[in-house]
Design brief:
about 210 residues; mainly alpha; three-stranded mixed β-sheet; 9 helices; globular; disordered N terminus
Length: about 210
């Protein structure tokens, strides 16, 4: 009886270990760019690109000028389209990236949001840029094997990790932890900021420790 109990306890512990590992993958390995330097490198290269007349897409405070990048920084092989929310290609979502080509489709309402630099629109556009960079048919073969979509349980988290590094880089987050300042400087929502703190394991400042409003 003792051996049976020990065996059952070991099986129970093993199952719990697997559950803990699965949770760790979903919250850390998939989302944390520290585990995938390719994500951080790709976001850094995007931020380092130059627009018209050699102008930077990053302002003096570190805010990425996403609307300007969408207008002047996309490659010739990347296309973008705004459609009605009733468009069947959107499948009820706010945005979709067609995986067989570098083509993004957004809800028409997000165009106005991006033009006004609205944080939610910024995050959705940055997320779809992550899909274009890593998950489209033309680029998936160029992505390092360690970072290909087949290695991920959830490519959505992969794209969100890129969006976080693009809009709110890890290095800047380490030195600026106030939610209010981050929202103002980097143009991100409270939820976006809270997720960055969670997956990067960076504590919030005391004035921002209270739960954020949706």
């Amino acid at each position: 009886m003792t051996k049976i109990r020990v065996r059952r306890a070991a099986q129970r512990d093993h199952r719990q270990l697997l559950l803990n590992f699965a949770e760790m993958r979903s919250t850390a390995i998939l989302a944390d760019p520290l585990y995938f330097p390719e994500i951080k490198d790709a976001a850094r290269k995007t931020r380092a690109r130059e627009g018209l007349y050699g102008r930077s897409f990053v302002d003096k405070r570190g805010r990425f000028k996403l609307a300007e990048y969408i207008s002047y920084g996309l490659g010739d092989d990347t296309t973008l389209e705004y459609a009605s929310a009733k468009d069947t290609r959107l499948l009820g979502a706010h945005a979709v990236t067609e995986t067989w080509c570098r083509h993004m489709i957004f809800d028409e309402k997000l165009r106005l949001g991006l033009e006004s630099d609205e944080p939610r629109a910024r995050s959705i556009h940055a997320h779809e840029l992550g899909h274009v960079l890593f998950h489209t048919a033309r680029t998936v073969r160029e992505v390092p094997e360690s970072c290909r979509v087949e290695r991920f349980e959830d490519p959505e988290e992969h794209a969100w990790a890129y969006a976080r590094e693009l809009l709110f880089p890890w290095e800047l987050h380490q030195h600026l932890r106030c939610r209010k300042l981050c929202r103002e400087i980097f143009g991100v929502t409270d939820g976006f900021y809270d997720t960055c703190c969670k997956v990067r394991r960076i504590p919030q400042c005391e004035c921002c420790a209270a739960p954020a409003r949706a």
